[in-house]
Amino acid sequence: MSIQVFPDVVLRTRRLVLRALLEEDVDAIVAAVSDPVTRRWLPLPEPYAREDAMSFVREKAPAARVGGSGLVRAIEWGGVLAGVIDLKRTDWRHRETEIGYWAAPASRAQGVMTEATVALSRWVLADMAFERVVLRIATGNQASIRVAEKAGFTYEGTARKAGFVHAGRVDLAVYSLIPDDLRH
User: What integer pLDDT is reported at residue 44 of this predicted model?
Assistant: First the structure.
């Protein structure tokens, strides 16, 4: 049986381009994920060095796609990196995947992440014929919860102590989007 993979797609919205990561993004990635707000919710290496970002761009992001587990996209807004969004924990048999994301500080509270989440989730449901897209968000991460709600995801419940951040284990709010949600 061959491995199923996502195409190396470029998605465009009114303001954004969702594209593959480039080596030119490395410095912007380091700056964004070194921000204390981003670090609070992501269990990234401490400190996050340029080598970590280079490995992410050159190895980890491409490996997710070619290995069939997901798809990592840079979010470009006005010609600069506004964040990263990805599909992960992809289950091809059951046509389910999870979206994760982080925003660069300058792009927060601008609707960028909601727009990117809408674009990627609609693409995977409509164009890739998936049946379910999930978001798992630390219950204290109110900005990400707002993104889920504004993007039309439905709250399903809380998975207790299911996530991990630098401060330890956290509860995760689980949100989903299915094709039927797009018909309303």
Answer: 86
